[in-house]
Amino acid sequence: GENVEQHPSTLSVQEGDSAVIKCTYSDSASNYFPWYKQELGKGPQLIIDIRSNVGEKKDQRIAVTLNKTAKHFSLHITETQPEDSAVYFCAWGSSNTGKLIFGQGTTLQVKP
Amino acid sequence: EAGVAQSPRYKIIEKRQSVAFWCNPISGHATLYWYQQILGQGPKLLIQFQNNGVVDDSQLPKDRFSAERLKGVDSTLKIQPAKLEDSAVYLCASSLARGLGYTFGSGTRLTVV
After folding, report:
1. What is the pLDDT of residue A1?
2. CB distance B48–A98 less than 8 Å?
3. N or C: which end of chain B has fewer CB within 10 A?
4. Any idea of the CA torsion for B59, A32, A63, A41, to the nearest 10 degrees?
5. CB pairs below 8 Å between A and B: how many?
6. CB of B113 closer than 8 Å to CB of B13
């Protein structure tokens, strides 16, 4: 079936700390795993993505890890800043179809 | 490059009325998507176009929702008649091709009263 479990639903951290958000998916055929950041009143913005032939990808303070055997992937944000406060969505899909299934979202609050 | 443009930004209608949303994707993007995002949830795909053809509309409530993409560029999504549960943000996204990361517009927030 098409399902993504995303945890936690809310996360509050102190500025400078790390934040980790985890997602579990159900379809073993999926091969594309993007993460989106959504600020109030705006559409989701792609911040990082990973494909199934890679286990980890890093872009400055953001990293994503993928465990295909366990069907889960995680977003790691280091040295968090107040401007990182937003709702983060994981998604999975197939590069063949382009369709994405989104998680329920994690509200991240970074306290200064 | 210019982003995905959507209008209107907000719309309030009474139940049983009709409403239409418009989307202009990034120039050259062949794939266009309409997603519905209910408050507190992740976006859910309604329909996907490849150029002007429908690729996936399995989640579109076809008794009341319709969408078209004339000439493979702009797209419109229509609801007729609207129900209270249609209150949501309607997001349009586009990508250069299927399987590539896509760009979302800011969405249209629909409130049905």
Report:
1. 52
2. yes
3. N
4. -30
5. 63
6. yes
Task: Tell whether the torsion through CA atoms of B107, B42, B95 and A38 is positive or negative.
Answer: positive
The pLDDT assigned to B5 comes to 97
The residue-averaged pLDDT of A75-95 equals: 95
The b-or-e profile of A65-84 (16+ CB within 10 A means b, else e) is bbeeeeebbbbbbeebeeeb
User: Which of A49, A89, A94 is closest, CB to CB, to B101?
Assistant: A49
Residues on chain B touching A34 (C-beta within 8 angstroms) = 101
- A2 pLDDT exceeds 80? no
Selected for mutation to probe chain B from A64, A87, A89, A100 (highest B CB count within 10 Å) is: A100
β-partners of residue A15 are none
Residue predicted with more confidence, A3 or A21: A21
> Over 90: is that where the pLDDT of A34 sits?
yes
A contacts of B56 (beta carbons < 8 Å): 97, 99
Tokens of B44: 């859910």
